[in-house]
Write a structure and sequence with these properties.
56% strand; mainly beta; 0% helix; rod-shaped; 4-stranded antiparallel β-sheet; 8 strands; two-stranded antiparallel sheet
């Protein structure tokens, strides 16, 4: 099993401070929870690994802000399933 909690504090979007002004627009703080699991078994005498991952498990709405002040809406809940077989 795996789990991750990612937290980002309030981030200012405008950069008026660089010209002597005051920052006025910001993206609020947010926390995202990611969960995952891995299960190993044998099928037809071959080792198989099954994986499932859920990113943004609580389906939080959040904004990410780059160093240059570009804001973009964070990803919604995403489920990723995979399987690998060793031959």
């Amino acid at each position: 099993l795996t789990a991750a909690a990612i937290h980002t504090g309030k981030v200012y979007v405008d950069d008026t401070w660089s010209t002597g002004g005051t920052n006025t627009q910001h993206a609020p703080d947010w926390t995202r929870i990611d969960l995952g699991a891995r299960y190993r078994l044998h099928l037809a005498d071959k080792p198989v690994t099954l994986r499932a991952t859920v990113e943004n498990a609580l389906d939080e709405n959040y904004w990410t802000v780059s160093t240059f002040g570009n804001a973009q809406l964070g990803w919604p809940r995403i489920v990723v399933l995979s399987a690998t077989v060793d031959f």
